[in-house]
Amino acid sequence: MPYSSVAIVGRPNVGKSTLFNALAGSRIAIEADSPGVTRDRVLYPLTIDDRTFDLVDTGGIGIVDSQKLENLVERQIDIAIGAADVIVFLVDSRDGITPLDQDVADRIRRSGKKALLVAAKVDTQRIEDALPSFHALGFGDALPVSAKQNRGLADLGEAILGLLPPDDGTEGGDAEARSLPKIAVVGRRNVGKSTFINQIAGAERVIVSDAPGTTRDSLDITIRLEGAAFTLIDTAGLRKRGQMDDSLEFFGHMRTERAVRRADAVILMLDATEEIGKVDKRIGAFILENYKPCVIALNKWDMVEEKSPGIALDAFTKYIDDRLPGLSFARLAGLSAREGVNAWQVVESALELVRQGGRKTPTAALNAALEAAQKKRATRAKGGRLGRIYYGAQIEVSPPTFLLFVNNPSQFDDNYKRYLVGQLRRDLDYPEIPLRLIFKTSDEKEVGRYT
Length: 451
Hints:
Elements: E1 4-9, H1 16-24, E2 42-48, E3 51-57, H2 70-83, E4 86-92, H3 99-111, E5 114-120, H4 125-129, E6 143-144, H5 153-163, H6 174-179, E7 182-186, H7 193-201, E8 219-225, E9 228-234, H8 247-262, E10 265-271, H9 278-289, E11 294-299, H10 301-307, H11 314-323, E12 331-335, H12 343-357, H13 363-376, E13 389-396, E14 401-406, H14 414-427, E15 436-441, H15 444-447
Parallel strand pairs: 1-3, 1-4, 4-5, 5-6, 7-9, 7-10, 10-11, 11-12, 14-15
Antiparallel strand pairs: 2-3, 8-9, 13-14
């Protein structure tokens, strides 16, 4: 069941994202002094006193957007207000009441939702002494907070809990929310990631626009349908570093990399009608560096089929292997994000890779595979000696990580490591999963302690 929802609402640049991050205890939403940074709804499952609810950051009401996305941002705010059980009406304590604050107040009153008036940036006693003026908004006393000084956050948490509907026992705990498989959807700008997310969510969950760079934050979207529960992470579209316009794009880039690192699997979305470029290659390399299972999703596949009837995905295999070296193990899928064709199958593929990566291999099977690999192909001799693997043990899952006790790690060059990974992937039934090998110097006597 979905959690109760608490939406932070206010005009632009009152500090909504800063407060959101302070309550979450992490820099989840992008913060900047310029107004209009947040566009989509950013959700975080926040737990206070064993009660978990969705904390929602929203765009500024009355935003003037540089890409003319005002109506789309307002639509996301409307959805957040409509879904909210409690609204945190945030004002800037230093500015006093502005006409736009009055507009926000009217909008909240029309919603009929429970609301808390909260004054941000209350960093001094002088500012706090002026808060009674906010009574004119009609929401009672303004609760003072300062995210910068960590002031008033506990009181705000208690006030939110006091307004939430009773917990009927159907809401999961924070641990359950965090344990759901996480799938990051990544790719260059305007490749169809947000359209894909909305198809899976079955709702207008994120803003979709032809304007490039629409998504800025990394957005966690929990999906529960068809007997599956998981979290999709929508990410900012990437482009070459030298082409980044401003710090917001840089922060979005950093959050995309963070999304890959914390994901259990990654969907790398490519435009099937365009060539694979440098940005795609850089994303692929980053996925590989972090040992993430990957589905390579070819969006607009319907347009390819229309142009070349009967074409099979296999026709792209060599091309992708050449352009994305190292990701030859990745699962390949074609889809139309706009039409929703094969979208769910792409997610199912990613979830299957999560299950593959979480599997533990019996030690006997691992060592049998290592022995067979060494018999089939030996390392190159260095100093008259061959590299020898005495014993192996799996020490982690996701990614499957194997500790190998060897006579000398330097005997195993990159070519042999790639060979060994290929053999283990085949023999241990990890056909589409990256494997991590750790080589440790040992001798046969020492290995005896691990067997």
